[in-house]
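Materials and Methods. Structural model of RAD50-interacting protein 1. The 839-residue sequence of RAD50-interacting protein 1 from Coemansia erecta was retrieved and submitted for structure prediction as follows.
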Amino acid sequence: MTDIETGSPETTALQQLLDNHFPSLESLSMVDDLLRGEEETNSLLEEELRAAQTRKAELEKEASEIAERIRAESLALIDIHSGIVGGSVDDSVSAWQFRDGTETMELVSKLAAELKTYERLQQSKDYVDIVVDVEETVEQAKVNISKNPQSVLAACTHAIEILAKHLATPDLDRSIVNKPSHLCTYIKQSVQSMWEQVEMAAGVSQSESLAKLGWPGKMDMSSTSTVVDFDSSFSMLLNLDRIMRGAQTILDQSDIDLCKGRFSPLPLEYMARAVDIRMRYHFESSRNTNRADKPEWWLSQILTTLRNIVPFLEAHVQWLYDATATEHLDIRNQFILLLLPIVRRKLLHDRPEYLGSGMIVSSVVRELSDFEHTLQEVYFFDGPSVLDEFLSDSTVFAAWVEAERTSAMKAYMDTVAEPGAFDPVYSDDVLGADDARPSRVSEKAVLLVEDIAERYAMVPSCMLKLQILSTAQFPIIIALVEDVEAEIDEFSRISLPFIRDSTVISPVASANATALQSSFIMQLERLASWYQTVWHVEEAARDWNNSAIYVDMWAAVCRRAQKLGSGTDPRDWRDGCDRWTAEDQTVLDQEQPDLASVTDNDDWLDGGIWERTIRTLGDLKKRILDLVSRAVNKEVVGQMRPYRKKNNWAVSSTDGADGHGRDVNISSEMGSVLPELSVLVVSLSTMLSYGAFVRLIRLLADELDTFMADRVACAHRFDMRGGLQFVADVSAISRVLFASASRNALSSVPQRSLVKAQECGSILSCAADSTSSPNVGSGAAMSLSLEEWGPTIMDTTVDDREALLVLAKLGVSHLTVKQVRQLVGNRSDFAYNSVSDSA
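The predicted structure was written out as C-alpha cells:
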C-alpha cells in the first residue's frame, strides 16, 4: 500500500494495467485464468528456447566441422603450392597465412557473399529475359494480327513453349516454385490476353466475311474476295484450335483455360454464334415471338436455318476443313451439335412456363420429336437426344402428366354433367344394326383416351408412357365405369321395382296402357344407352389392345415380369409404377423384336395392357343386359296377367271359328297383348346389338315358355278347341318374338321357341278319341288320340322311364311326366276312369 501511495513508476504501470484490463471488481476473477495462460505460454516459449539452443549447438558443431575441413583442404593446397614453387621455406608462402586458419573463414565468407550476389543478378537477368521474351511474342502477334497470319501462329506456338518452359513443369521442383507469383501471373495473363486478341480478330474477320455471304441465311457465293477472306479467317481459327488442343496438357498444368468449355473447332464455334444471337433476339427477348406455348416457331426457325446453310457446310466448309485438318470430321453433324445448346437453353428459359401450364409440355414433346426426326432422317444426325434430356426432368414430366389428368377428367365430368350425356350421338340410320352406337359420354371418354395417347405416342421411354397411361388414361375409364354403375344401382333401387307388375288391357284402358308402354320403352332406352355406352368403350379398348403402341407396352411389362420371377403377373404392373427405378426403366425401355421373344406364356401372349379393362367393361355390359332382361320379362309377364286369368278354355266359343273348330284365331286376351309385345320387340331390336337382342329374346322366350306352360296350360281346364286356341296363341307369340321385320335372320328360329308351350298345345289340342280329329291348320302334331296313349301315361303304375319313351315317340321331350299327366287331367273332354285316376 505504501508503494501505491508513493506513485512510483512501477505502481503507475500496474495501476494502468489494472485499469485497462480489469475495469470492474468482477473482472478481477479473470486474473487467475490470465496468469495460468501466461504461465503456459511462458512454458512453451522456454521449450522452444531449449530446442533452439539445441539446434544452435548442432549448427555450431556442424559449422566447426566444415571450417576444420576447409582449413585442412586449404593447408593441403598450400602444401601443394609450396611444392610447386620450390620449397616450404619460400618467402611468398607466408603471405597466405593459412597455417593458423584465421583468414580461411574470412575468405570463404567473402566468396559466399559474392556468389549470392551473382545468383541474384543471374535470377534478375532470367526474369528480365522471360519478360522480354513474352513482350516480344505479344508484340509480334499484335503487329502481324492482320498482316501475316503465319507470324501470328508462330507467336502463338512460341507462347505455348514459354508456358511449357516456365509454368508447366509437372514435378515438385518445377521452375514456377523458384519464380515469384507476380511473374507467373504476368506470363499467364499475357499469353491468355494475346491468345484472346488473336482469336477475337480472326473470329471477327470470319463473322464479317460470313455476313457478307448472307450467313446464317441463304448463302451467296458470288463474291470471290469475300470467299477468300472467309477461307483465310477459317484457316486461321482452325490452326489456332489445332495449336490449342495440341497443347491442352500444358495449358492444364499452367492453370489456363483457352477452350472455355468448347468442344468443337473454333471456326464452327464462331459460325454458330450468329445463329445463337439471332435466336436469342427473336425467342429469348421481350419480342412477341418469344412464346413458350409456340415451340414450333423457334424449332422451325432452326430447321430453316439448317436448310439454308447445310449446302454451304457440305460443299465448301467440309472441303476447307479436310484440306487443312489431320483428322476427318463431319462438319454438318458437328454444326448441328453446336445448335443443340440453343435448344437446351430455350427449354430451360421456358421451364417456368412449363411448370405453370403443363399442357404446353405435350406441344413441346411433339415438336421436339418432329425436330429430331427431321435431323435424323434429313440431315443424318447421330448425336444425343434433346427430347430424352427434356423428359428426364421429373418435375416437368410430372407437371405434364398432372395437366393431362386434370384436363381429361374435367372434360369428362363436364360431359357427364350435361343433360342427355348418355343419349346416342348418331341416328339409327348412320350406323349399322350391329355397330356400337356411342353416347356423348362414351365418345368423349374414347376421344380423351385416344387424344392423350396421340400426344405421348412420340415419347421414347416406354416407362414414361406407362406412367401417363396409368395416371391420365385409366382414370377416365374408371370414372365412366363408376358413373354407369351408379346409374345402374339407382335404376335397380328405384325404377325397376316400379315397373308395372299388373296390366289390365281393355278398350277403355288403352290410353293408359299406351302411356305405360311409352314410359317403359323410355326406361329401356335408358338401359340401352348405358349398354351402348359400355359397348362402345369396350370395342374401343379391344382396338387399343391390338394397336402397336400398347402392344409394345405390354411386351415391356411382360419383360419386366419375367425378370422379376415366375410369380409376377404382368397385369399387376400398375401396383408400383409410381416407384419405378432406373433399373426398371432400363428393362422397360429395352427394345424387343416381338412379344413372342419376351415369353412363352400363352396367357401373356393373349393378354394386353387393356385386358382387365375389357373384362371389366364386359362384365358391366352383361350386368346391364341382365337388368334389361329382368325389366323386359317383368313387363311382359305383367302384360300377360289378364291372359293368365282367362278361364274359358273349355267353354264353347265362336272366336273366329266355325262350328267344326277350323280356322281358330288367337284369343282376344292375346290379341290385346301382342301389339305391345311387338312394339317392345321392335324397340329392343333397334336399341341393342344383334347378339344382345338374340340373347334377350331367348331369355324372354324362356320366360314366356315357362309362363305359358306352368301358369296357363297346367293351371286351366281345356277342351280340344281351347287347346287349338292355345296353340294359335303360342304360335302368335313365337312369330312376334322371332319374326321381327328388322331381324329377318331369325325367321327360321320359331321352331325352337316356346318348346314346352308348343308341347303343351300339342297335348291340349290332341283329339280325345279316334272319332274326332284336330284342325289341320292348328299346328297340332300328334297323330294319336288321347284315348290311345292317355291311359298309359295316366297309369301311375307305369314307370316314368317307360312313360318318357312313350312321350318321346309322340314328340314330347321337354315336359315332365308329372306335367303331362296334369295336362291330360285338365282335358275336360277326356275322361279317364281308374283307381289311380284320383292320384
